[in-house]
Fold these 3 entries.
Entry 1:
Amino acid sequence: MENNQTQTDSAPLLFLENASLDFGGGAGVFDLDLSLSKGAILGIIGPSGCGKTTTIRLINGIYGPTSGEVMVFDKKPLKFNASDKARIGYIPQQFILYPNLSAQENMHFMGGIYGMTSAERKVKIKSLLEFVDLIEARKRLARKMSGGMQRRLMLAGALLHDPDLLIADEPTAGIDPILRARIWDSFRELRDQGKTLMVTTQYVGEAAYCDLVAVMRNGRLVTVDTPKGLQRQAMGGEVVHIQVEENQQLEVLRFLQGLPQVHKVERITAEPGGLYIYVDDSGKEIPNLLAILNEKQSITPKITEPYLPPFDEVFVRLIRASEKQQIEERSA
Amino acid sequence: MIQYLIQTFSFFMKEFHDVRRQPRLMISLVGGPLLVLAAFGATFRSANPFISTVLVWPESGIPGINQDQAASFFSEYFYLAEVTTNREEAMQMLDEGRVDVVQIIPEINLAQVGDRERPEIQVLSNTVDPNAEAWIRSLAFGEVNFINQQLLSQEAVQAQDKAREVAGELETTQSQFEQISQTFDEEKIEQTRELITELRPLLANLSSTLPPESIAQANLSPELSRLHRDLDILVDDLDELENALSQGEAQTQIERLNSSTEEIRTLRETITIFVNTPSENITSPVRETYTNLRGSAYSLVVFYAPSVLALLVQQLAITLASLGLVRERQMGTFEMFRVSPLKLSQIIFGKSLAYIFYVTIAGITLTVLLTLINVPMPANIGQTLLLLVVLATASVGIGFVISATSRTDSQAIQLTMLVLLLSIFFTGFFLPISGFSWPAWIIAALIPMTHAIEGLQELMLVGTNATGVWTGLVLIILLSYGLVLLIMRRQYRKVLD
C-alpha cells in the first residue's frame, strides 16, 4: 500500500508506455507498460530469457525501443547526457570487477569513472564498504573474494556516486539464501533513504521484498502489482485456511460452497480436515465464517487464519493463467 | 575538463594496479627477451652459414699452388672436413650428408691455359637453403679468383726470368748495332743481317713466355702491355731494317739501323721496368684498401642490440594493448561503461597512458641492461627517452587496432604474433628494406619498429641524434588511434550485439 501511495503521490521516475524492442524471430520485449515512482523497489520477476535484462537495458539507455516510449527522469534514455547517466547506478548481471584489483581499488576505479575526486571517493568508499560489511576485506583482491562478497562489492561500487536510481540485474543470482536476504535488507535500507531501485530476479520468493512486482513471460509483462496484489490476482481473491475434524471436512466444504461471500472452497490434500476458502477480504470474512459455522453447523474449526500463498505458487498460477489466456486469444 | 582527466586517470590507475599485480608478466616480457639476447651474445660465432666441404685435389697438383696453401685458403670460409684426391669418396660424403659441399679442382696444364682449354673447378652441393647457396657460389667465385691469381703470378715470374735473360742479349745486340752504325759500309750489311737473324728467335721466345696480351689488358697491367707493344715495334723495325738492307740505299740503311737500335734500347728499358715490377702487380695491378673512418664496426651482438630493443618495446606494447580492449569486452565492462558518463576516448587514452608508462620503464631498463653487453649508452638521453615514448605510443596504437578487431584473447595473440613476423621480415631487422620491392616499403612504414630501429641505431651506435624517424612514428600514432576510435565507436554503440 505504501508503494501505491508513492506511485500516486509523485511523478513517475521511470515510465514505459507500450514499449517494444523487437530483435526479430520472436525475440525481444513487447508492449511494456510500466511506471515507477521515486523511493520504491520494483522487482522484475520471470524465468530466464523472459526479457528482464532487455527491459533493464531499455531503461538504462543501452538499447532504444523499436516502438513505444521509454522515459527515465523525464528523458529518453538514449538522449542521456553525462549528468543524467550519473544519476543511475548499475549492477550488470555479469561479475565485472577487476580480479587483480583490491576491493578498495575497484571502488576507486568505479568512483573515478563517475568523475569523483580522490577525496570524495575516500570518504564514500569507507562508509559504503561498512554498509556492505566489507570494510575488513577492503585490501583483499577481488579474485580472492567469495561470490557473495563480490556481489556486495558491486553493489557498493554502483552506489558510490550516490545515484537516484539503482538498477540491479539479478544481483542475488547464485547466492545463498542468507546472503540474499542481507542484500535485500540493503536494498530496503536504500529505499528507505529515498533511493529508487529496479531489481530483476529469478527467485520468485524475492517478490516479497519489493514494493511493486512486474511478472514477465516471453518478453511481455504478465502483470504489475504489489506483492499482496499479486497474491490476490493469482488466487482470485484472499484465502482463509481452516482445519476441522476429518469426518466433518466434506460437510463443511459443501456448506461453505453455498455461501454467497465464498467464491470457492478447496480441500487441502496434504492436510486432513484442511480447507482453503476463497473470499474477497479475509480479514473481514473470518469472523463471519466462524460465526456462521458455529451457528448453522455447530462446528468450531481447530485452525482459522488468513492464508498467504507462497510466491512460487502465485507465480505458477499467474503464468498458467497467462498461458491459458494466450491460448484462448489465439483460438478466438 | 578536470572531470575528463579524473575519468581518464581512473583507467590509468586501474591498468597500473592490474599490471603491477602481475610481476611475472613483466619479468617474462622484459627479462625473457634480455636473457635471449645475452644467450645470443654469449654463443654467437658467425653470421655466415656454417658450410662443411671436402676438397678434391688433383693428383698432379696445380702449378704454383701447393695443397696446404689451398687448404689454408679454403678453411677461411668453409669448414674443411677433408682434402682428398678421391672424387668418389667425396661424392659419397656429400650423399651421406657428412659435408655440404664438394669442390673438385681439375688438372691444370699451364701451357694450355688461355689456349683452347679452360679448366673448370666444380662446386657441388645439395643444399635447400638459398642463403647457403648464395654463400657457396660467392665463395666459389672467390676461390676461382684465388687460383687464377696464383697461376698468373707464376706465369709472370717465369716471364720476368725470361725477360731478364733476353735483356742481356739485347744489350749486346744494341752495342753491336751502335758500332756498325758508326762505321757502316757494304761489308757491314751481312753482319747486320746475321745479328737480326740471331735476335729474332730470342724475341719470339720472350713473346711466347709473356702472359697473353689479352690478360695484360684484362688485368690492366701497364708494364705487361708496354712490353708486348715494344716487342711488336722492335720486330716491325727489324723487318724494315732487313728491307732497307736489301734495297741498298746507304742513308736509309743507316737510318733504319739507328731506329732499330733505339727500339732495342726502349725495349730494354721496358724489360727493366717489367722485371723489377712485383709479379702480383703484373697479375693484379689494382688492389683495395679499406678504412673505417669511425675506427671499426661493432660486433654483431652490439649492432643488433638497438633493433632488439625496438622489437622488445614494440612487442611488449602491442601485447599489453592487444589484450586491453578484448578483455574489457569479454568481461562485459563495456556495458557498465555505456551506462556511466564515460567517453570512449577516456577509456582509450587512460589505458594508453598506463601501457606507455610501463613499456617506457621497460625500455629504459633494457637500455641500461644492454650496456652490460657493451652496447654504447645513447648519445642523447632525452631524445632516446622521447623515442621510446613515441615508439611505445605507436605500438600501443597498433595493439589497440588488434584488440578492436579481435573477438577473443587468442585471436588477439595470433594477430600479435603476425605483427611480430612482419616486424622480423619487413623492418630491416635482419633483411634490408631496400632489398624488397615497393609494396613491402608500405608495410615497413606502417610498423613502428622500422622507424625505431633507424633512430635507436643513430642514437646508440652512430652517436648522433635521431633524424627522419619522427614523422613516420607520428603518422602511425594518428592512423592507429584514429582507426581504433572509429572501430571502437561502432562497437561501443553496439556493445551487446
Entry 2:
Amino acid sequence: MTEITRRKERIDRKIKVLTEDIYAISSLRTIVYILLPRFVFIIGMLILPLMISSMAWQKILIISCIFSLLAISYDFLANFVGIVCLGGALFIGVGGYISGLLNSVLKLPLYFSIPIATIFGGIICTLFLIPCLPIRGIYFAIVSLMYPLLFSRVIQALEIFGGTDGLPGLDTFPNIWFELYIIVPITLIVTFSLRRLVNEDFGIVLRAIRDNEQAVIASNINVNRYKTSSVFIASIIGCFAGAYLAHLYGWVGLSLFALDFSIFPIAATVIGGGGTLVGPVIGSIILAPLSEMLRAFGPLRVVFYSLILAGLVIYKTEGLVPFLERKYHKTERWVDV
Amino acid sequence: MNKEIILRVNNVSKSFGGVKAVNCVNLEVSEGKIFGIIGPNGSGKTTLVNIITGFIKPDSGSILFEGENITGLPPYKIAGIGIVRTFQIPKPYYSLSAMKNLVVPLYSTRILNLVEGKTGDRDTVALDILEEIGFERDSNTPYKPASSFSEGYLKRLELARCIALKPKIIIMDELFSGLSVSEITSLIPIIEKLQMNGITIIMIEHRIKELFRLADRVMVLNFGERIAEDTPDEIIKNELVKRAYIGVAEDAT
C-alpha cells in the first residue's frame, strides 16, 4: 500500500507540572511561557479601548465590563464556594439605588457615592442573603432571584426613591476615556485578586466548603463565617457594577432590577468556562457585543443568539478558557507514518 | 477503671419520627483507650457519633467531655475542643491535592490557637502527617488531586485530616469498611501508634475481628439500645450479642 496515512502527534511542552500551582521554574523561557497568557490578556484588555474608534462600541465595551464583574462574582460563588447565586440584579439594583440616592438627595459627588454605595450595598445584600445561607443549590438561586422582584415592587408600590420614574439627573463621568479607564482596570484588578484569593488559605477553605461542607465543619471551621465573607465579596463586586452603571446612565430606575443582570452572567460563565474567573470576563466580552451586533437582525436576533449559545454549550462544554488552556499546554501536529 | 474518664454520654435519646434511633444510651470512655462500638445495620451507631460530634442535637440526655457539658454545641466548636471524627463515606476535597486538603484543618481556629499564630512551615507539617499516615514523602502522591486516590488512600486522607487537628478523641466511623484486608492490615499499626501518642479512639466497626484485636472495651448497640458493654473477650461469649447479630432460634422445640 502506497497510501500515506497520517496521525496526530502530541508535542508536550517540556515543563514538569506537579500540581496546578507548583511549577519548577528554571529559566526565563519557562517563566515567559507561564506568564505569557496573563500578559496578553492584561495588555489586550488595556489597549482594547484605544483600538475601538466608535463611541457606540466603546459604550458596549463598558457594558461588557459591567457584565464581566457580575459574571466573575457569579463564577466565584458558584464554582469556588458552591453557592449558586443569581443575585446579579439584586447587586446592580441595590448598588445603583444607593449611589443614586447619595448623589441626588445628599448631593455627594460620584467619587464618594460610588465607593460608599459599593460598601454599603455589599453589606445590605449580604444581610439579605445571610438567612438563605443554610439552604443550598437551586433554592438559594431562587431566593436570590426573588429579592430584586421584591425590591422593585416595593419601590413601585410605595412610590419611594422616585417610584416608577426613577431618579434622573445624576452626575455622569466627565468623558468616555474616564469611563473606560475606570471600569477596565477595575475588572482586571477584581479578576486577578480573586484568582489570587482562591489559591490562598482562605480560598482553599472556600473550595473545600464547595467539595464537602461537613468535613470542613468537622475540621473546626465556622463555615457560616466563610460563606458570609464570600457572599460579601461577591456583593461588593456586583454593587460596584451597579453604582457605576447608575452614573454611566445618569439615571437609576426599576430596570436596574431587570432579570438580564442575573441571567447574562450564567451564559457568560458557561461560554468562557466556569471556575477560571478569567473565563467569565472573556465570555462577557464575546457575548455583549454579539447580542449588540445581532440587533441588526431584528426579531431574529434572539434566534441567532440562542443558536450560538446552544452550539457553544453542546460542542465546547468546558468553556473557552479551559479549552485554550489545554491547547496552550500541548500542541499537536500532523505527521506522516 | 483506673484511668480518667474523658467522655461520658448520659441517657442520650434521639428519635426520627417514630423511630427511636438512639434510646437512653450511656457510655464512658477512659482516656487513652480504644473504645469499640458495634451493632447491626441501623442500630444507631452513626447517629450516636453525630450526636457526640454535634451534627445532630439529642432529644434528651447530655454529653460531658473532660467533665464539661458539651451538649448542643455547634459541630465546629466540638471539633475545636478536640473531638474529631471521620466520615463513613470519605469525601475529601476532591479538587484539591492531598497537601491542600490538610490546609483546611491546619488553618482551623484550634490549630492557630495551639501554635499561637506561628504557623511555621505548614508544608512540612502537612508532609509529616501524610508520611505518618502512609503517603510516600518523596513521591508526587501528596501533590496529586484527591480525586485520583483509591478508597484506601481516601480513608487515610480522612484520618490525616483528623490527626492534623491534634485531637484528644478521634471517632472513626467505619474506617475499615470498603477496604481490602491488606489495606486494613496497614492501617492497624497507624491506629495503634495514635493510641500510644495518648489519643483516645472510638471505633465504630463492622469488622469484628480487627476491632476486637484493637479495642480495650466494646459496646454493642441494637435498635438504638445498649445491650452490652465489656472487654472484647467477654463480648464474644455474650448470649444477647449473639442473638442480636445472628438471631439465635427462639427455642427450637
Entry 3:
Amino acid sequence: MFLAFAAPNILLIAAFSYRPLISNIYYSTLNWTLGAPTAKKVGFGNYVDFFTSPDAGRILGTTAVFSVATVGGSMALGLMIALALNRRVKGAGLARAAVFSPFVLSGVGVGLVWLFIFDPTVGALGSILRGLGASSPQWFNDPTLSLVMVIIVYVWKNMGYAAVIYLAGLQSVSPDVLEAASIDGAGSTRKFFAITLPLLGPTTFFLLVTSILNSLQAFDLIRIMTPLGQGTTTLIYDAYLQAFGGYNRAGYSAAVSTILFALLVVLTLLQLTFLERRVHYR
Amino acid sequence: MSAVAQDAGLGRGPSRQRPLSARNLATTVATGYVPLVLATLVVVLPLLWMVFSSFKSPSELVTQDLVVFPHSLAPTNYHDAARTVPFPRLFLNSAIVTLVGAGLKVVLAIFTAYALVFVRFPFKRVVFGAILVTLMVPPQVSLLPNYVLISGLGGNDTYWGLILPGLGTGFGTFLLRQQFMQLPGSTIEAAEIDGAGHWRRLWRVVVPISLPSIATVALVNIVFEWNDYLWPLVIVSEPRMMTLPVGLTLLRNSESGAASYGILMAGTVCVLVPVLVVFATLQRHIVTGLTQGAVKD
C-alpha cells in the first residue's frame, strides 16, 4: 500500500535525480562529444585537465567572487530592509511584498530588463550618469564590469528573500530584552550589535548556507546577460558551456558538474555539523 | 530552532508604543520610511521602466536623453515581438507545461506525503531522507545525464520531454508531510472505523482539510515551472515548442541593435506580468510557501 502511493514519485526521483549523479561520474571519465556514438575512456584526465589548466583558477575565482559578493550583498541589504520593516510603519506590508516580488520573477525576464537599463549607449543608467556629468561604464565589454553587473542584478533579485527571513527572525527577538538594555542606558547601535545581531545568529546561519548553495546554482541571469560568459564563467556556467555551448566537451562538462556537486555536498555537511554547535539557540 | 519563518507577517506580537515625540517621529521616518521607500523604488522602478519601454517607438528608445513616458500606447512592439517569435504559441506552451507539470507534482506530493504519514511501512524514515536529499541535488548537476536519456528516448521538442524529468518532487512532499502530521489523529481514526480505505480517507478527509497547504505547494510549483529555464533551453530547439523564457532568449539573439529593446521589453512583459499579477493577489501564500524551507524540525 505504501509503495502504491509513494512509488511514482520515488521512481521519478531515482530516475532523474539519483541516476544522473552516478552517470555524471561515469561521463566525467570520458573524452566525448554530446551526440557522438563513441567515446574514449580517459580516467581522471578531465579532472587533471581542469585543475592543471588556467581555467581552474579563473573559474573557481569567479565562482568565489560571485558567491561572496551576492551572498554578502543580499544578506546585508536584506537585514537593513528587515530592520526598517520591523518598525511596523504604515505601508510596511506593501513594501514587504514589493521587495520580495523579484524573487518570484523569471531570471531571464529580470536579466533582460536590467540589460536594457545597463546598456551604455541607450540605457537609463547611462542617461542618468551623463546627466550627472559622468560617462557610462562599459558594462558589456569589460569582463570585470560584466561580473559586477550580474552581481548587482542577482542581489536585486534575491535581497527580498533575505529580508523576509530576517524579518521573521527579528520578530522573535524579545522586546523585553531590548527594553531592559535601554533602561541600562544602551544606545540603539549598542543594542543592535550586542543583542539583536547575536540573537539573529540562527537566522544568519540559515541564510548564509542557503544563499551560498543558491548562488552556486545561479544560471538564468548569467546566461541571458552574458551569454559568452565573459567574466562571468562560474563552475555551473562552465559546465553548461562545455557541453551545450559549442565547446563539445561533454565529458569535461560532467567533470565540472561533479566538482560542483562535491562542493555542494561539502557545504551541506558543514551546515549539518555546525548547525548543532556553533549557533546561538534561544 | 522552530518555525523561524512560520509567519513573517507584520503587526503581530507585542509592540510597545513610546510617547510620540518629535524625536521619535524623526527616528521613525529616518529608520523606517526612508529605507522602505528607497527599497520599494529600487524594486518597482525597473519594472515600471520595462512596461513603459515596451510601448516606446525606436526613436524614443535610441536616444541619449531619458524619455520616461512613451508617446503612445499602441502595442506595436508586441506585434513585432510576435512576428519574430511565435509568442501566442509560446504562451500556450508555457501554460501547458506549467499547469500539467505543477498539477502532476502536487498530486505526486499528496500521494507521497500521505504514504509517509498514514501508511505503515518499515523504512519510512529512510525513504523520506532519500527524498529530502534531492532538495540538495541541483537540477544543473543532473542536466547532462537527463539530456542524454530524454533525448535518446526521442523527447526533444516534445511536451513530455519538457515535463517528465522535473516531476519528482521533494519540496512538495516535505511541505505536505509536515502539514499532514499536524492533522488531528481522531479525525483520521474516525474515518478508519467507518471503514474508509486509504483512498477514501485521502480524498474525503485528508485533502479537504489540507487545502490551504496544497494550494501553497501548487502556487510555488506554478511559479517555479513558469520561470524554469535551463531544462527547456537544452531540450527544445524548435521555436514552436519553446516556453516563454526560452523564446525570450531566441528573441534576444535575433533582435539586435538599440531599437530592438522595445520588442525585447514587450516579450519580457509577457513573461513577468502574469507572475506579478498572481503574486499580487496571493502574495501571503507564496511568501509563506517559499520561505517555509527555513522551518527546521
